Amino acid sequence: MVGELRYREFRVPLGPGLHAYPDELIRQRVGHDGHPEYQIRWLILRRGDEGEGGSSQVDCKAEHILLWMSNDEIYANCHKMLGEDGQVIGPSQEITGEAGALDKSVLGEMETDVKSLIQRALRQLEECVGTIPPAPLLHTVHVLSAYASIEPLTGVFKDPRVLDLLMHMLSSPDYQIRWSAGRMIQALASHDAGTRTQILLSLSQQEAIEKHLDFDSRCALLALFAQATLSEHPMSFEGIQLPQVPGRLLFSLVKRYLHVTSLLDQLNDSAAEPGAQNNSGPEELSGERDRLELEFSMAMGTLISELVQAMRWDWALSRQRPLARSSCSIFQPQLAEAGPGLPPTRAQPSIRRSRRFRPRSEFASGNTYALYVRETLQAGMRVRMLDDYEEVSAGDEGEFRQSNNGMPPVQVLWESTGRTYWVHWHMLEILGFEEDIEDVVEANEYQGAVVSGALGVALPSWRWKPMTELYAVPYVLPEDEDAEESEHLTQAEWWELLFFIKKLDGPDHQEVLQILQENLDGEILDDEILAELAVPMELAQDLLLALPQRLDDSALRDLLNCRVYRKYGPEALAGHPAYPTLLEAQAQPQESAGAARVEGKEPPAQYPDTPLWRLLVDCGPPGRTFLDLERALSSEGPQETEIKPFLLQLQRQPQPFLILMQSLATPAANKPLHLTVLRILMQLVDFPEALLLPWHEAMDACMACLRSPDTDREVLQELIFFLHRLASVSRDYAVVLNQLGARDAISKALEKHLGKLELAQELRDMVFKCEKHAHLYRKLTTNILGGCIQMVLGQIEDHRRTHRPINIPFFDVFLRYLCQGSSMEVKEDKCWEKVEVSSNPHRASKLTDRNPKTYWESSGSAGSHYITLHMHQGILIRQLTLLVAGEDSSYMPARVVVFGGDSTNSLNTELNSVNVMPSASRVILLENLTRFWPIIQIRIKRCQQGGIDTRIRGLEVLGPKPTFWPVFREQLCRHTRLFYMVRAQAWSQDIAEDRRSLLHLSSRLNGALRQEQNFADRFLPDDEAAQALGKTCWEALVSPLVQNITSPDEDGISPLGWLLDQYLECREAAHNPQSRAAAFSSRVRRLTHLLVHVEPCEAPLPAAAAPRTKSRNRSHDWSSLATRGLPSSIVRNLTRCWQAVVEEQVNNFLTSHWRDDDFVPRYCEHFHNLQKSSSELFGPRAAFLLALQNGCAGGLLKLPFLKAAHVSEQFARHIDQRIQGSRIGGARGMEMLAQLQRCLETVLIFSGLEIATTFEHYYQHYMADRLLGVGSSWLEGAVLEQIGPCFPNRLPQQMLQSLSTSEELQRQFHVYQLQRLDQELLKLEDTEKKIQGGHETSDKEHKGEKAEEAEGAVVTNVVEEEEEEENEDLYYEGAMPEVSVLVLSPRCWPIASICHTLNPRTCLPSYLRGTLNRYSNFYSKSQSYPALEQGPKRRLQWTWLGRAELQFGDQTLHVSTVQMWLLLYLNDLQAVSVESLLALSGLSPDMLNQAITPLTSLRGPLDLREENDVPGGVLKIRDASEEPRPRRGNVWLIPPQVYLKAEDEEGRNLEKRRNLLNCLIVRILKAHGDKGLHIDQLVCRVLDAWQKGPCPPRGLVSSLGRGSACNSTDVLSCILHLLGKGTVRRHDDQPQMLSYAVPMTVMEPHTESLNPGSSGPNPPLTFHTLQIRSRGVPYASCTGTQSFSTFR
C-alpha cells in the first residue's frame, strides 16, 4: 500500500480533538482541466488515539474522507507520497505479489476446474428441483466457495453463468443451498470493494429477482450489502429515530444505491489517464463521459426520490412548504439587526418614529427629558416604552391615558397586555398621533465618535462596513447576464425536467417527446441530444402543464417539490400554491374512471352514516373509493377482479388507507370503529395487491392500540389476529413490529389478560425470531442514508473543484431534508436521566409506566409535595404534561408551580404556575422552552377541596425533534474544512515560492467564495446551514492563508508585508488609471478588502434568559448588555502585518530625514499618506488605524535617545510656531491652523511612549514663553484637550490651571483693594466729624485753645506718620496703571534660575512698587488662613518674566518686563550705559542683550552707540529727526522665542537622568531575582532610592529645569523603555509582576547626594510674574522730549 502510518505527520485539524492524516492513494484520473488528480484517503483520528504504536490505530480506517487532490496540493500537503523525481507515486501494485506465487500452468488448471465445477453445479441444481438437495451438490458448491476465496481466480467467477448459478441457489427453497450461495458470495466479495460491488450490482439487476427471492434470500443479500457498506460509510445517527422501512423497500433502495455507486465508479474510471484502458479519441471519451454524467444524475435523482419517501420526509413537506432563504453573505456573522454591510437585497427592519417629537438621546439628562415628556404628552397620543419595567417590556407601544402625582405617575393602555399599567415619564418615547408617525429604517448604533473641542477627531468603530457593492461583498461581483441564456433553462433545470420525462412510459413518453420536437423544428431526439438541449422558458412551461396529468402520485409529488416547478410552474407564475390543487385535479379523472367501471354493473349507492363513513367523509374521492372497497369486501364471496381496481387506486392514493389504520390510536371508546377497521384490514391481507400498500407507515397506531391499557379485550384479540396474519404473510412486517417493540407490548398484554389471548404467544415468538433481521434493517437504513450523504458531499467537492454546476435532480430537496431533519419526537425516557419525588420513592415508577390506572401518591404536609426531573444535557422541553384524574377528589392537584435551576440547590426560577380545573385530565405545564434547565421541579402547592396528599397519574415529557442537521453539519464541515485547508496550503506553497503569485490570490479567493455563496443560495434552505458552511469555509481557507502570508520569512519580511510595501512605493504612480501601477494597486486593494470582509462577531445574547420577576423592586438585568467581541485571528494577523509595514516605513523615514529643517511637515505628510493608504486598503476600521499608530510608535521607539529628543523638540517647536502664526488671522492664519491640526494628529502617537517625556519637557518651555510673552488664547486649551495624553506629567495642563487660579487671585485682590479704600474713606469721615465737633466748643480761654491745637498737630503728625507707613496699602482708583500679577508655581512652570529674580525696590518706579507691595500683603494675608491652604506657608518671589504695554508718543509698544524697566529708566536719563544696567538689574548679559536687541532695531525707539571708554555701549532715545518711521499703532518689540537644542548639554543631561533611572530599576529587579516585583512597589523603591541617593552629579542637578526632581511618570517611562528593549519582562500569569530578563549595559553617571548636608526639605517656592496695564499716562514727562509711560 502507498500510504500507511508514515504519513501521519501531515495532519489537518478538523475540529476539537480531531485531525485528518493522508493515508493511502486510492486511484487517479484526469481532471476537467486536463491535469491529473489523485484520490487520497484521509484518516480521521481523535486526540486520544495518537499513540506511539501503529497497531492500535488500524481500526481508525473506518472513519475516513476520500478527497481528490491535484499535483500541487499533494506536493504541499503529502510530499512523502512523492517519488525522488518529485512525481506522485501511483497506486501500488504490491497486491499482485500473491498472484506471482502461483505458476501460470497451475493457475490455468485451476481455472479449468472452476469452469467444470460451475457446469456441474448448474446440472445438479436442475436435477434436484423440488427435492432435497443431494450431498454432491453441496460438496460442489463448497469447493466453488474455496476456489472463490483465491484472489487470482476472481476473473473466472465473473462469468455470466456464475450469476445464473447464484440466482438459482438464492431462489432455491432449501435453506442449505441458499446458505451455500451466501458463503460463495462472501468469498468473492472478500477481495476488494470493486468485486463486491460488481457482484451485488449484477445480482440486484437481474430481471424479476424480487419474484425469485424469498425473505431469507433477500435478507442474505441485504446482509452482504450491509457488511460491504459498513466500513465504507461509518456514520452514526445515534439519537435519531429512523423510520421502519420494510425489506422490500430496502432492497429497492439497495438496487438504486448500487446502481449509483457503479455509475460513479465508471465516471471516475472514464477519467483515468488517456489510453490506459482504450484507444478512443478525446471526442469519444468526452461523449462517453457526458452520457455517464446524465445517467448518473438520473439514477441519483431516483435514489433521492425513493429515499425521501422511505424516510417519510415528504410528509413534512406536504404540511409545510419550504421557505426561500434570504440572500445575504454567508461569511458575515448575522446579528440581531441588519447592518449596512449587507447587500442591498436584504431587507432592513423598520420601526415607527415620530416626525415631530424629540427622542431621549437629544437630551443631556433623564430629568430634562422627563420634564419635556410631561409638558408635551397629551391624552390619546401613542407612546413607546424605552426600558423594561415590571410587566412592560422595552419596545411595547400603547396609548397615553392620564397622569397624577403618584409614583409612577403615567397611566398607559398597553397593546401587549391589553390593559393599563403605570410607568415613569422618562421611560416613554412620544410617537404622537397617527399622523405624526412614520416608518423609518432603523440606523446602526452610533459608535465611538469622540469630538475633542474645536479640533476633535471622530474615531471609526470596530464594525465599519463599506456601502459600495464591491467592498461590501467583494466576492459577489455583478455579472453580465447573457439575454439569450436568461431566456432558457439552465442545464440543471433542464435535467431535472428531463428526469420526469424519462419517468413516463409508452404513449405518455412519446407525447412529451412530440411536444419537444414540435418546438425544436422536428429534430430527432436521442439521449445525447436530449442531454444538451437548450430549452426555452415557454417550452418548459408547456411541459410543466403536460406532465402532471401523466405522472403517478409519487412522481407528481416529486414534481411539485422540485425547484424547476416552483420556478416555472403555472401556479408559481400565477402567484398561488400548487400542491393541493394539482393532486385533487389528478384524482378527479381517476375517480371518474373508477366510478365508470362500477357504474357498468350497479348504480351509485348512498353511504350509510357509520363510524367508518364519518372517518373518511373528509377524504374526498379517495375516501369514497375506500368506502366502495369496504362495501365490496362486505359482500358475500368478494371477487378478486372486483377488489383489484380499488387496491390499485389505493396504491396511488393511500391517504384513506393510512387514516383507517391510524384510527386505531384513537381512544378506546371507539370500539365499533376499531372492530370495523380490523375486520377490513384482516380481509385486505389476503390480497397480494394489498401487500404493496404502505402498512409500515401506520404500524405505530397498531402499537399504540396494543400498549393502551384501556383497549377492549375483544379489540385487542382482533388486533393480534390481524398482526399475526400480516406477519405470517410478509415477515417484513414482523421485522417492523420488532423494531417498534411489539415483543414487550405483547408480553404485557398477556400478563394483563392472564395469557388468554389466542395467537399472542405465536406472534411474540415470530417477532422475537426477527430480532436479527430488525438489527440488519436498521443497519441497512443507516448505511444507505450515510452512503447517500457521502455521495452528496462528494458531488459538492467536485462542484468546488471543477466549478461546474450540480445537475442532480432533487439535490436541493435532499439537502433541505438533511438540514431540517426528522419528524420523530424524543419522548419520556429519552429526555430525563432520573425522576425523584418528595415521598414514597418506591412508587415513583408509576409516573412513567404510561398506565393512567396507576398513580404516585405523596405522603406529607400540604404544599410540600414535589417531583424533580434531572434532564439529559441539552434537552429543550417542547412539552411537559401532568396526568391527573377527577375521580381522585381531594387528592387531585389544584395549583402546580414549575421551577427550574442548574442544581437542586438553585431552584429559584419560576417557569410557570397552573391552576388545575377539577374536570382536567391532562395539564400542560411547560411548552417550547428556549433554554436548557438541568433540573425541573414540579411543586404541588394546593390540592382540590383542601386536600393534604396528592395523586399524580402520570408524567409526559416531549423533547426536541432530533434532526439530521447536526450529523450532516459535522460531515459537511469536515469535508469543507479538509478541502479548503488542503487548498490553502497549496496556495501558500505557491506564494512562498514566488511572492508575485500573491497578486492572483484575490481572484482565487473570489472564485472560491463566490462558489460557496452561490451554492448556499441555490441549495441550502436556511441561514443556519448557510452560516455554518460560510464560517467553516472562511476559517479553513482564509485563516490559514492569512496566517501564512503574514508570517515573516528568514529575512523577517512576510509576503503580504512585501506586497503592502510595494503598494506604498507605487502609490503616487497609481494615479494614472492606465498605468501598470494602477492595475497592481487595484489587485492589492481587492485582496485586502476581501480578507477583512468578515467583521468580528459580537457575543450573542442567551437564547432565553430567566423569566422576569414581577416585582417593582427587581434589580437591573446587566446580562442584557452585550459585550463587543474582539477582532478575530484574521484581523489580528493582518493588523500585525500592517503594523510591521508601517513601522519599517516610519523607521526608514526617520533615519533619512530626522535632521532636515522641514522634518515635521514632511513627517506629517508621510503619516497622512499612511493614513490614506490604510483607509484605501482596509477601510477606516479602528483595528488598522490602531495598528498604524502602533507602527509609527514602533518606529519612534527605535530611535536613540538624543535623536528621539531632537524629534520631540522639533514637534514642540513646530506646534509653537503654528500657534503663534495662527494669531495673524486671515488666510495665512487659517493655513497655520490646518497645519497645526495635521501635526496634532501625528503627535497623538507619542502617548504612552518614552518620547512623550522629552516632548513634554520642550513643549512646557515653549508654552511658558508663549503664555508669558503673548498671553493665553482658546487655542492653547483646544490643543491640550486633543494631545493631552501625550503629557505624562500633565505639566501643560497644570500651567493653564495655574493661570486660571492666578486670575481668580487677581479678582480677589481687586476686591481686597476696594475694601481697604472703603476703610480709609470711613476713617476720613470719622476724622472730619471729630474736627467739626471741636469747632462748636467754647473758645473763651485762649490757653485751652492752644492746647487743643497742639494736640491736634500731634495727632495729625501721628496720623501723618501713620499714613506714611500705610500709604502703600491705599488704593486710589484710576491713579495708577493697571497691574496684573501672575502667581506661578515652580512645580509646573519652568522657572528655576535665581538670576531672574526681580527686586521691586531698586528696579521699579514707586507707583508700580506700591502695587506690588499691596499684592504681597494681600497674598500674605490669604496664606494666613489654614482653612484655605494646608502645609508650609508659601512666599512670593518676583521675577523678570512678564510683558507690558508702554505709550511712546502715538505708539503702543508691546514689550517684556525687562524692556519696560529699561525704557522707564530712560525717562529720567538721556542716556545710560549697558554696564550700569547690568549692575543695577542683576541680569545676565545674554538676557539683557536679548531684551535690548528688539529695542534698537529699526522699529525700536532706542539707539545703541558704542564708545571706547564704555563697555557694551550706551543706550539713548532715538531722535525723530534722525530716521523717519511710523509714529502710530502697535509695535511688537517682545524678544523672539529662543528654541532649545536637544544636542546641547540639557539634552545630554536628560539622557543621563534616563540612564540613571534605568540603572536603579535594573539594580532593584536584580536584587529580587526571578520572583520579581510588583510594578507599584518598583516605582516606590526607585523614587525612594532617587531621593536618598545615589543621585545625579551636580552638573545634572543645576541644568535640569526642575532641578533633580523625579516622579512616578519618569520611572514608568523608563520601565516601558526597558520592556521594549527586553531587559525587563512581565510574568505571563501575572502581568503586573516585573523581573530582570537579560543583562544590559547602561552608562551610570557619577552620582552624589541630592541635598548634601541638608536636614530636611526646603520650603516650596512660588514664583511670580506681573502684567501691567494703565488707563492713562499721569506720570508722563512734562518736557518736550518724548518719554515712556506704562500702559499695560
From TrEMBL:
<dbReference type="InterPro" id="IPR045093">
    <property type="entry name" value="Cullin"/>
</dbReference>
<dbReference type="InterPro" id="IPR016024">
    <property type="entry name" value="ARM-type_fold"/>
</dbReference>
<keyword id="KW-0833">Ubl conjugation pathway</keyword>
<dbReference type="InterPro" id="IPR036388">
    <property type="entry name" value="WH-like_DNA-bd_sf"/>
</dbReference>
<dbReference type="InterPro" id="IPR056405">
    <property type="entry name" value="ARM_CUL7_CUL9"/>
</dbReference>
<dbReference type="InterPro" id="IPR016158">
    <property type="entry name" value="Cullin_homology"/>
</dbReference>
<dbReference type="InterPro" id="IPR021097">
    <property type="entry name" value="CPH_domain"/>
</dbReference>
<dbReference type="InterPro" id="IPR008979">
    <property type="entry name" value="Galactose-bd-like_sf"/>
</dbReference>
<dbReference type="InterPro" id="IPR019559">
    <property type="entry name" value="Cullin_neddylation_domain"/>
</dbReference>
<keyword id="KW-1017">Isopeptide bond</keyword>
<dbReference type="Pfam" id="PF03256">
    <property type="entry name" value="ANAPC10"/>
</dbReference>
<dbReference type="GO" id="GO:0031461">
    <property type="term" value="C:cullin-RING ubiquitin ligase complex"/>
</dbReference>
<feature type="region of interest" description="Disordered">
    <location>
        <begin position="269"/>
        <end position="288"/>
    </location>
</feature>
<dbReference type="GO" id="GO:0007088">
    <property type="term" value="P:regulation of mitotic nuclear division"/>
</dbReference>
<dbReference type="GO" id="GO:0031625">
    <property type="term" value="F:ubiquitin protein ligase binding"/>
</dbReference>
<dbReference type="InterPro" id="IPR014722">
    <property type="entry name" value="Rib_uL2_dom2"/>
</dbReference>
<feature type="region of interest" description="Disordered">
    <location>
        <begin position="335"/>
        <end position="355"/>
    </location>
</feature>
<keyword id="KW-0597">Phosphoprotein</keyword>
<comment type="similarity">
    <text>Belongs to the cullin family.</text>
</comment>
<dbReference type="Pfam" id="PF24742">
    <property type="entry name" value="ARM_CUL7_CUL9"/>
</dbReference>
<feature type="region of interest" description="Disordered">
    <location>
        <begin position="1330"/>
        <end position="1354"/>
    </location>
</feature>
<feature type="domain" description="Cullin family profile">
    <location>
        <begin position="1206"/>
        <end position="1496"/>
    </location>
</feature>
<keyword id="KW-0963">Cytoplasm</keyword>
<dbReference type="GO" id="GO:0005829">
    <property type="term" value="C:cytosol"/>
</dbReference>
<keyword id="KW-0832">Ubl conjugation</keyword>
<dbReference type="GO" id="GO:0000226">
    <property type="term" value="P:microtubule cytoskeleton organization"/>
</dbReference>
<feature type="compositionally biased region" description="Basic and acidic residues">
    <location>
        <begin position="1330"/>
        <end position="1349"/>
    </location>
</feature>
<protein>
    <recommendedName>
        <fullName>Cullin 7</fullName>
    </recommendedName>
</protein>
<dbReference type="Pfam" id="PF11515">
    <property type="entry name" value="Cul7"/>
</dbReference>
<feature type="domain" description="DOC">
    <location>
        <begin position="805"/>
        <end position="984"/>
    </location>
</feature>
<dbReference type="Pfam" id="PF23168">
    <property type="entry name" value="CUL7_CUL9_N"/>
</dbReference>
<dbReference type="GO" id="GO:0006511">
    <property type="term" value="P:ubiquitin-dependent protein catabolic process"/>
</dbReference>
<dbReference type="InterPro" id="IPR004939">
    <property type="entry name" value="APC_su10/DOC_dom"/>
</dbReference>
<dbReference type="InterPro" id="IPR036317">
    <property type="entry name" value="Cullin_homology_sf"/>
</dbReference>
<dbReference type="InterPro" id="IPR055486">
    <property type="entry name" value="CUL7/CUL9_N"/>
</dbReference>
